Amino acid sequence: LLLLALAPPCAPGARANMPVGTPIHRLMIDPYIAVVAGALATCNIPLAFLEPTIANWMEESMGASEWEVGLTWLPAFFPHVLGVYVTVRLAAAYPHLQWFYGALGMAIIGASSCLVPACRNFGQVVVPLCGICFGIALVDTALLPTLAFLVDVRHVSVYGSVYAIADISYSVAYALGPIVAGQIVHTMGFVQLNLGMGLANVLYAPVLLFLKNVCQMKPSHSERNILLEEGPKGLYDTIKMEERKG
Fold it and tell me: Are 211 and 36 in contact, with CB atoms under 8 Å apart?
């Protein structure tokens, strides 16, 4: 009901004049978008793999009570919010370092994942879990706007498909979590699971150097040039042209 009141559906003819977005399969093969999607999936693997396995490990290794198991992830909420806030402030001051914030977040996630098996009580295990959630906040908050920028400069400024790719990246991690993590713990052990996740994040962090020059990209044939050369043809073009004249 709120959506109907605040964002009523477009008139039947209005949607025909809206720009057509780049097909999702073309966005998926864009190397820059693929790097970001890989980072989003990799950084969420520790969270997705620990959620179904850490409860049993805490009960077996440190004799954790039910209330401790139930509250394991609650403290991590606060560093996650802090990570979002810090990244937003840093991105506003130094927008050309978005890739670095993502790489730093992945390094923090990797180090924190490796520390989890060394914990011996509830108070200790909370610390690396907070580190994991803080790192995920850095990666997500830095790289999701990068996806929008990549679509602006390399494709058409319609964002539904590219954020669908981001959701697919999360979904891959969380779909594999209960299946793969349990099997790895059963065959190799909880320690090896965490070391593998940590190593994957640390090794992926340098890959984000590929995004270093993204902020310097310029659209090859921007929407502004198209409108100035061809003039308004539909509702969307007319609105954009009027905004620029204003």
Answer: yes
